[in-house]
Write a structure and sequence with these properties.
Keywords: Exonuclease, Hydrolase, Nuclease. This is 3'-5' exonuclease. It comes from Arundinibacter roseus. Residues 1-166 form the Exonuclease domain. DNA polymerase III is a complex, multichain enzyme responsible for most of the replicative synthesis in bacteria. The epsilon subunit contain the editing function and is a proofreading 3'-5' exonuclease. The structure is a single chain. The protein is of the alpha/beta class. The chain has a single domain, classed as Nucleotidyltransferase, domain 5, CATH 3.30.420.10. Helices cover 40% and strands 18% of the residues. It has seven helices and five strands; from the N terminus they run βββαααβαβααα. The chain has a five-stranded mixed beta sheet with strand order 3-2-1-4-5. A hairpin with a 4-residue loop joins strand 2 (19-27) and strand 3 (32-39). The radius of gyration is 16 Å and the shape is globular. The N and C termini lie close together (9 Å).
């Protein structure tokens, strides 16, 4: 199982920055079998440059659940699955930090679609999500929003699975 994740945040992973949106697609190696998506009230100010990038502002998230209210859903949809993301350390460390603020240790095995893309599709100038999607003709809608970026990462991951001739991606179908 794979949990393909994308988040939007109030800034970089260090400091008091928080998650503002999360999308997770649970994938069995063949297809998406479950999804979770939510805006998240970060309980902190969203800087204007983040709003310009994502379209997420303080007004949009004021009535959204705080992370503790969605933690069970995040825990469940990622349970017993590889945590997959484009630049996985960013998304994973944010979620791990959110769980640590709830006094909970969160751990998942991780797969990075940036690193996998470099190995499986060598030779591209850039492996940013936007550029690799363009290079591989993957439709990327709703850029810099969790569900749009996660959906594109699902398509990228499916191509990676298809072209992984070196067995870089752990596959354990039930």
């Amino acid at each position: 199982m794979y949990a393909i994740v994308d988040i939007e945040t109030t800034g970089g992973v260090n400091g008091p920055t928080r998650i503002t949106e999360i999308a997770v697609f649970r994938h069995d190696g063949r297809q998406v079998i479950d999804t979770f998506h939510s805006l998240v009230n970060p309980q902190t100010y969203i800087p204007p440059f983040i709003t310009r990038l994502t379209g997420i502002d303080n007004q949009l998230v004021k009535d959204a659940p705080v992370f503790s209210e969605i933690a069970d859903s995040v825990r469940q949809i990622t349970k017993d699955a590889w945590f997959v993301a484009h630049n996985v350390s960013f998304d994973y460390n944010f979620i791990k930090k959110e769980f640590s603020w709830l006094d909970e240790f969160y751990t998942r095995d991780q797969l990075c679609t940036v690193r996998l893309s470099r190995k499986i599709f060598p030779g591209y100038k850039s492996y940013s999500l936007g550029n690799i999607c363009q290079s591989l003709n993957i439709k990327l809608e709703d850029r810099h929003r969790a569900s749009g970026d996660a959906a594109a990462t699902v398509k990228l991951f499916e191509l990676l699975l298809q072209y992984d001739t070196k067995a870089l991606i752990p596959v354990d179908f039930d």
